[in-house]
Design a protein that fits this description.
This protein is of the alpha+beta class. It has 15 helices and five strands.
Length: 370
């Protein structure tokens, strides 16, 4: 006997979602970005913490720039674990020097630092004792001198722009995930309580929602950030505390309709507690619009964090943030190096657009009327 085809609402919604080309494409793009965010230091050419290796002599170079790089090993031995290096970057104390030429004389490595047609500095002498013992000149060249290509160029401090972009994805994903989580916890809890109990409790929660809603989001985030102080987690909390009102209003409206259903009346007649009725019977049938709002809030959180970083009160240096990268380089637009601001701008735009498209696809898939 052939297996009966499932006609549950979740199965039908999944089938409709799979037919939405832009929704599926956005889903895979977000998954791809999430993998990069988790393993950013594995993919980044500069795997030092925060990709903060500065080379001022090669600042603001265009995409594809190539230079010979000398690495002088540090005498300090790092005791980092493998997992610590993979997820948080290498505590790299090695010195990297862009060079034009090098030669060996006795026990000295003579180098000419990179100057790009400017006044050529006097050559520097580096004693071979700075390198591990027992290495021949050929081995030193092979292991510590290499041609390095900067695929997206370098920023105004000579840092690898590609590495900063990859690690900056972490900030965007983290702010979106934490802010949406906070907004869901507060919004669903307060919205469900207001819609279910009604009366004075509903009036009080609605007053709180309306007051919070009346304050411009950016100003409220700035006020909370200044109260909690500048920093990584403070921004997360501040953004999350401003995004719960829309969730609460939608959940309240859904609960007001669902609580009139016969199965809720039957649950009350059976003596179930209010908590069980809300969590087991009302909320599971009220959360479809919340899923759509969460996707939009994720995109909104990324934009808010970028705006805060642009204003200087978001993620603090040397932590890479796409908003801060635009802030550092927007003046370069008129200097013929617009890519320094356009590249992080395209990153923000593509990630926000992906979440908005997946939100639209979820809205269409969860609309039972179609």
């Amino acid at each position: 006997m052939p297996k009966a085809k499932s006609n549950s609402l979740s199965t039908l919604a999944l089938q409709k979602f799979k037919k939405n080309f832009w929704g599926v494409l956005s889903f895979y793009f977000i998954v791809f970005c999430a993998i990069i965010a988790v393993f950013a230091y594995v993919f980044a050419p500069d795997d030092s913490q925060y990709a903060n290796q500065m080379h001022l002599s090669i600042h603001s170079k265009p995409p594809g720039f190539k230079v010979k790089m000398l690495t002088i090993p540090s005498q300090d031995v790092s005791d980092q674990s493998f997992l610590d290096k993979v997820f948080f970057g290498e505590k790299n104390s090695d010195t990297e020097l862009p060079i034009e030429r090098y030669s060996f004389e006795d026990d000295v490595l003579k180098i000419s630092p990179y100057s790009e047609g400017e006044v050529i500095e006097l050559s520097k002498d580096i004693k071979l004792g700075r390198f591990p013992e027992g290495l021949t000149q050929e081995e030193i060249v092979k292991e510590y001198i290499a041609d390095q290509r900067f695929i997206l160029g370098t920023d105004k401090y000579g840092r690898d722009l590609l590495s900063r972009m990859l690690i900056g994805i972490r900030i965007s994903f983290s702010i979106g995930f934490v802010a949406v989580l906070i907004s869901l916890i507060l919004g669903i809890s307060l919205g469900a309580i207001a819609g279910y109990f009604g009366g004075k409790i509903d009036a009080m929660i609605m007053w709180l929602i309306n007051v919070t809603w009346s304050i411009p989001t950016l100003l409220l985030v700035i006020a909370i950030t200044l109260a909690l102080g500048k920093g990584f987690w403070q921004v997360f909390i501040a953004v999350g505390l401003t995004m719960w009102v829309e969730v609460a209003r939608v959940v309240r409206g859904q609960v007001l309709g669902v609580k009139q259903m016969q199965y809720v009346t039957a649950a009350k007649a059976l003596g179930f507690t209010n908590f069980r009725i809300i969590t087991r019977h009302i909320l599971p049938n009220s959360l479809a619009p919340v899923i759509v709002i969460s996707a939009a809030n994720f995109a909104g959180a990324i934009l808010i964090e970028s705006g805060l970083s642009f204003l200087g009160i978001g993620a603090q240096p040397p932590m890479p943030s796409w908003g801060a990268m635009i802030k550092d380089h927007y003046s370069y637009i008129i200097l013929g190096k617009a890519y320094l601001a356009i590249i992080p701008g395209l990153g923000i735009m593509s990630l926000v657009m992906a979440f908005m498209l997946i939100g639209n696809a979820l809205r269409d898939a969860l609309d039972v009327k179609n």
